[in-house]
Design goal:
The protein is α+β, with helices and mostly antiparallel strands and 205 residues long. Helix 1 crosses helix 2 (107-115). Helices cover 22% and strands 28% of the residues. Strands 3-2-1-4-5-8-7-6 form an 8-stranded mixed sheet, sandwiched between helices.
């Protein structure tokens, strides 16, 4: 599937509907809740995000935990959650990685390839890449590198807070992924689509 990742095609127009996806795990069993929250990023800024719709599905994990193969655990549940939306998203934002991944095929790549939708990852921690701390101001960034390859960016979404780690997944440029990350992070470190999906999946469990 990695050979099907398209990093040469960017978004043809500014995205309006961004779907944030996340999965929460029940601690005492194999149960999971997968959530998708669709946010209209073209709406005027306000204290609350413009949520268009959301969906949650429940299930039990059968694929074992293998570092670097998270997609095989989570993608089936996330696809089921996406299927429950009545409005198609313009782009998928994943709580995880795109190509900033040892196999250059993180969760965002996996979802992008199987859905055909533009996708990118916004992770809370760096996986195997190296980076210099970006400047302290909102919007400042530094490259995520592995050897001679630049795989993403460490992006400061709020002044003085830890950066998030942005990488393209499928059919989107790194510049576009960075711009959407900042556009959807008006108040918090974590962008609203994945922050809301995380909260929804936790509440559902």
């Amino acid at each position: 599937m990695r050979n099907r990742v398209d990093l040469s095609t960017g978004l043809p127009a500014p995205a309006r509907l961004v779907a944030g996806l996340d999965v929460s795990y029940r601690q005492d069993s194999a149960g999971v809740a997968a959530a998708v929250v669709l946010i209209d990023v073209s709406a005027p800024p306000s204290p609350a995000p413009a949520i268009v719709e959301s969906a949650v599905v429940f299930g039990e994990v059968t694929f074992p935990y293998v570092p670097g193969l998270l997609g095989f655990r989570e993608v089936p549940f996330l696809l089921a959650a996406l299927d429950r939306l009545t409005t198609a998203p313009d782009v998928l934002m994943c709580d995880g990685y795109g190509i900033a991944h040892p196999r250059r095929f993180g969760l965002a790549c996996h979802l992008g390839v199987v859905t055909g939708l533009p996708s990118f990852g916004v992770a809370k921690t760096a996986f195997t890449t190296r980076f210099d701390p970006p400047g302290p101001g909102r919007g400042q960034w530094s490259p995520l590198v592995d050897g001679d390859e630049t795989l993403g960016r460490a992006v400061r979404t709020q002044a003085g807070v830890k950066p998030v780690f942005v990488s393209a997944g499928h059919r989107i440029t790194l510049d576009q992924a960075t711009e959407l990350t900042l556009a959807t992070s008006p108040r918090y470190r974590i962008p609203e689509p994945t922050r809301q999906a995380d909260q929804l999946s936790r509440r559902a469990l």
